[in-house]
Design brief:
Length: 307
Amino acid sequence: MNWTEITVNVPLEFTDTAAAIANMTVPYGIYIEDYSDLEQSAWDIAHIDLIDEELINKDRSCSIIHIYISECDNAAEALEFLKERLTAEGVPFEAGSVGVDDSDWNENWKKYFHTIEIGEKLAVVPSWENYENPQNRTILSIDPGAAFGTGTHATTSLCLELLQDKICDGVKMLDIGCGSGILALASVLLGAENAVGVDIDAQSVKTATENAQINNISDKVKFIVGDLADKISGKYEVICANIVADVIIRLLPDVDKFMTDNGVLIISGIIDIRKEDIFEAVVKNGFTIIEEKYKDNWCAFVLSKSI
């Protein structure tokens, strides 16, 4: 089997955070290079104080996280997931890969991303594929390019499943951390009056805007470069935040000011080991969990504001 190796170089003090995010991409572990306590580790493990000069000269100020993606998985999505989550957490990083040339990422998407049917209403169809639509589903055509969000990742598919029952004609939708724009676009296609998406990454906003054009709904969606909701105004019946747990916790104290009285907040991107942290923050900020879904160790919740 062929593998793609993704490496993420981060300052030493960010190792734990970056490692936690990296562990979300694979079920079988990661490898971390960290030479900050080389001498003590060599003595503790091997009881030696004679260390190869090459190791002595390693950079002690950073760590390197290695992630291995099998050929049957989507290395491109894993890499973009890492970039998006690390950026959202404010982690300085350099990311690279071996096994897939960066210039071939778009072609790599096409190799692994095929039409998927989600829930009872939606089909996410790559812009380069034909879909006969035997069940008369709502078709979302998408070209994710280098942005996160195809529907294949559990965090996105959970959001799309939950959205289908919350979107009805005339509602307004807000997507915080929009990536490829998939959630905002799906909402409009399913009946929302309009949708706004915001992302910290300008390239993601560009991709999302192009995907709106592909689906002929540019007049109903708007994508903005910004940090969380700092550039957002207005009220929305449905808000989605498919981001990491720590950022969701940071968002919860203020997000209700963008919700209508009967509005809901869909949160995803939460690994199961962070579920209790989310529960605590939900209660602390006056929300109630009204629905939950789980898939592949990931969690998604629908929240309403407690009265």
